[in-house]
Amino acid sequence: MVVSLHLQLAAALLILSALPAAAEMPPNVRERATKEAEVVIYGALPGRATKPIRELFEKAYGVRIVNWRGDTETILKRVTAESKTGNVFDVVIGNDALMTALDKKGLLESFDPPAAQKFPRQLLQSERRMTPWRVSAYGLNYNTQRLTAAQAPKNWTDLLDPKWKRKFVMPNPVLHSGTLEFLLNLEKLLGAKWLSVVQGWAKQRPRLSRDPAEEIPRLTSGEVPLAIGYIRDKYQFAGPIDFVKMEKYLASVSYIAVSHKAPHPNAGRVFTDFFLSPEPLQIIANLGDDVLNPDVEDRFKGEINDDQLVPMRVPSGAERDAWTKKFREMFK
Asked: In 3-state terms, what secondary structure has residue 42?
């Protein structure tokens, strides 16, 4: 019995020793980061996660975090102004629209963080100038006190049934850019009929909100039984919320990237790799977000798989302007 136990242990150790070691940042990069003393981050970490992540990083690396928070528009304005003088950020955290705009300006550096080696391949950018870390998947939420899973619509076209007229809420695509992007990307799921489906939704006269968060009181109170929004609402808001299980989900992707002109390039790379590692992302996952590190336990595991996520493309400025006018007329 003892001999058998020793043999099993020896075999396990042999297998472990044969596995490749987890990728890590080179020691010289960490040393240089410590000498650079600070890292300048543009963009917002999730609110309640900011302090614990800051404390973890500064304690581990002795590098101070300087964080300038702003939305997509204000960050773009600041970066555009600063890039003319050379005074730029080290790291930027933002949505797909912000990162695409910065990438087009040539401001992002190619960097393949070791911590992201096991992230979903279909979400990784081939040039590695930005790394995905979170997805915000769009879905159809329902009030579980008003509807059972069997009674709820099964897919996007089911919303065209006359019985759902005035019975669902959605963000106004004229006011909420994420919803405009979602509508345009429905072509990836519905093919050529996507526009006729959206036009059908408009004829159903949905209740319109300014953004997905504004929908929650209406949904949880039972004022409306259905809402087009983020499926993470099930975990981020108290109330009788669940989402319709579908084959695929359109997802907005959040990215992190290092500046091509970073004043503290080593600190920027070290922070990026740190941020993508399990411990910081676990803090964020505990708040109800769907993060991409497979070693993090989040509440979406078991409900959706990575291969069900379809990343949304970012429309051009001209395309966005043209469709804003069309949706204004459609959803008036």
From this structure: strand
- Which tokens belong to 315? 């429309």
Nearest to 292 by CA among 130, 79, 170: 130
- In the chain, the amino acid numbered 111 is F
Instruction: Identify the three-state secondary structure at position 135.
Output: strand
Our CA angle for 30, 34, 38, nearest 5°, is 120
The predicted model scores a pTM of 0.83
Q: Is the pLDDT of residue 19 over 90?
A: no
Helix (H) or strand (E) holding 227: strand 226-230
- Residues contacting 307, CB < 8 A, separation 6+: 120, 122
Q: What is the DSSP letter of 259?
A: B
According to DSSP, residue 67 is labeled E
Distance separating alpha carbons of residues 206 and 165, to the nearest angstrom? 7
Q: What angle do CA 260, 265, 267 make, to 5 degrees?
A: 140
Task: Calculate the alpha carbon distances from 53 to 132, 179, 236, 271 in Å.
Answer: 18, 30, 19, 10
Q: Is the pLDDT of residue 254 over 80?
A: yes
How far is residue 8's CA from residue 24's CA, in Å, rounded to a whole number? 30
CB 281, CB 115: distance < 8 Å = no
